[in-house]
Amino acid sequence: WQTENGVLLPSLQSALPFLDLHGTPRLEFHQSVFDELREKLLERVSAIALEGKVEERYKKLEDLLEKSFSLVKMPSIQPVVMCVMKHLPKVPEKKLKLVMADKDLYKACAVEVKRQIWQDNQALFGDEVSPLLKQYILEKENILFSNDISVLHNFFSPSPKTRRQGEVVQKLTQMIGKNVKLYDMVLQFLRTLFLRTRNVHYCTLRAELLMSLHDLEISEICTVDPCHKFTWCLDACIREKFVDNKRARELQGFLDGVKKGQEQVLGDLSMILCDPFAINTLALSTIRHLQDLVGQDTLPRESPDLLLLLRMLSLGQGAWDMIDSQVFKEPKMEAELITKFLPMLMSFVVDDHTFNVDQKLPSEEKGPIPYPSTIPEAFTKFLQENRIACEIGLYYILHITKQRNKNAFLRLLPALVETFSDLAFSDIFLHLLTGNLTLLGDEFALEEFCTSLFDGFFLTVCSRKENVHRHVLRLLLHLHHKVAPAKLESLQKALEPTKQSGEAVKELYNQLTEKLELRKPSPAEVTETPSMELPLPTVPTPASR
């Protein structure tokens, strides 16, 4: 039996006794021969997949699959069967069903085979993608609530290319491969989740995924996605954090080029413009344009570049409504935004310039001119009722905070208590604001500044908005040593978590309490200090003797 079933090589028979002398079992020898042959076979299968005419090579692989598939559950043969299936562009339906029905086989098969299963099985693909999407959202939220507060390294610091190297984007890119059907499914998942949750991070993933496929030059998908060139151009603007004139023209060309009957593409374009990274770039560019216009004595309505930025902001901010209503047309821009609100913002810039010049002039008898403290009622009304005005207004406040302009910040802060759908209490704005406030660190020692910022703004909603509670605690963890002790004590009381507070708030509060305990002088030090103030013993002077 051994002779019949062994390796039939005449020269081998005389060599085998040597192995016996070394105490090597025949099983070990046969196993190593088997492993070697399997490696050779795997190499051959990969080579067949690349040689000869297409029909012939796939015919060979199909025959091989037919012969070997019955042994697919044998661990030693399984890699060969899986390799054959991996190289077949279309595995027979019957075999795919058998793989899908067996959990272990499904787990073991290559992503190339899984793609063939997924494209006709949306529910199964959804189960695979869902944990990745959850992980992606969690990662974004962790960055927004990170304890590292810095004006230099914030949510928007990583470049688009760096972001696309993230684990989730890479995994999704690999799962999709060149399969347009799977790409469409992922986009459908993202649209549905965006509609269900209003979470704008899904819009970021939509753009990142397309650009990741673009990086890999997967033309099969890039050429059929109508947003590809628009996203590519916008991606370059996001990298520079500014929309220059040349790219503005290109972007306008894409928007103007949406033909009748193809309006549905506006839904996708609006989702790409709703990406916080796109909104950030458009808003920063808008603020920069407004400052330039002040210097040029030009009104907003006379700047086509500014009007285009507003048009894109409007399209991005209207993404949810457009996808929800399925009415694909650009939102109408309110004339008052351009004729009243933006000139009002420009007047704030002028107020700053005037005040700075006044400070430098030699003071006369009339004394120094105070900084304007009131804000026009219309400004507050715009922030409450107009989404685009609110977004631009918030970015202007971030801009003045970054410039360490305390006067302008305190003047406009009261307008933030009530904003359009509470945008001033959104995580992205608060993440950026807390970062910029670190530049005004020394102001936290002043009662007036702290009262305006904490009592007048943050604490007005802390009890009902847990995210605001978290951001205030993050800020205090970073700047507690700058705040006056009495104010810090009252803030500590005001920010104490309730029973309903989440774990994150309790954890942050405990961290803050620990830091404050460490700063308190120890009792030993306190008792020792009076001894320094004992009256010095009187030493009689020579004269008084």
Automatic annotation (TrEMBL):
Short name of one Pfam family: COBRA1
One GO BP annotation of this record: negative regulation of transcription elongation by RNA polymerase II
Residue ranges of the region described as Disordered: 519-545
GO molecular function terms noted in the UniProt entry: translation elongation factor activity
PANTHER family linked to this entry: NEGATIVE ELONGATION FACTOR B, NEGATIVE ELONGATION FACTOR COMPLEX MEMBER B
Keywords linked to the UniProt accession: Elongation factor, Protein biosynthesis
Cellular component, GO annotation: NELF complex
Cited InterPro entries: COBRA1
Name this polypeptide is given: Negative elongation factor B
